[in-house]
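note to self: dont lose this again. the chain is below, predicted strucutre after it. 295 aa total, dont forget to put it in the shared folder this time
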Amino acid sequence: MASDATTGFGLVGTLGRDRAEGRSRRREAGWARKAGWVWRMARMGLEVVLAAAALPLLLLSFWHLVAEHHWVSNLILPPPSDVWRTFRELLADGTIAENLAISGTRVAKGFAAGGLLGLLLGTALGLSTACRAYLRPTFISLTQVNLLGWIPLLILMFGIDEPLKIAAISWATFLPVTFNTMQGIAGIAPKWFELARVYQVRRRDVVWRVAIPAALPSLFTGIRSGLGAAWMSLVLVELVASSEGIGFMVVWGRQLFQLDLVLVAIIVIGAVGLTLDGLLRAVEWRLRRWQGAAA
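---
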């Protein structure tokens, strides 16, 4: 009897050790899979960064070569070292941060106003066939006119002060947000709206529970396009009528004939636009993955 009990306890101990070892091996395998995934993502990210940096590095090398051999006068094309020195000086004294804050505030106000109006009108156009029939041709014709063509009219309406800049940014944002919202909602499968009618879902709930979730990736594409348009329109309107802001730095540098200042402003404008687009593109990618998983 004692030997049987001893044998039983030994078996139990062996089974316990086996289970513990199995759990340990599974944890190790899980960590190995995670490490492999992290490594693959890091490698892919490095490849993307290197591919994206190839052309800028090539242009920078060519720029340095042109400046080094004086193929173009340094007054017209300053060497990269001068531009870098000017950038550090403007960054240290707060000029870049101050002008970026002013420009960012303008973009935030104009983007919020234009984006909200664009979402409202785009939703109405997407949900209503009658609205599309009456309003879509006029809306499409308005989108064919570049913002620069609207500037004289906007100046007559708002003057050349802050309202002009907000109105121009709002208009530039409004167009792509409206169009993408309309396309996204109009492209939803009719069966979802029919199902909502069968269950007698209220119109407001149809918008929030059916239309917007189903069209979310398209809506976000419109928001990303609208933010890009807002940033570009900001630079344009600050070039035309402004005494401060990141776009005005270009005008300021041209007036002083300091091309290094002009190039610094151009590089900052491009870097900020690229950063905004990259952040929103990453969010859009996540939304599309979420929609695909939900489908």
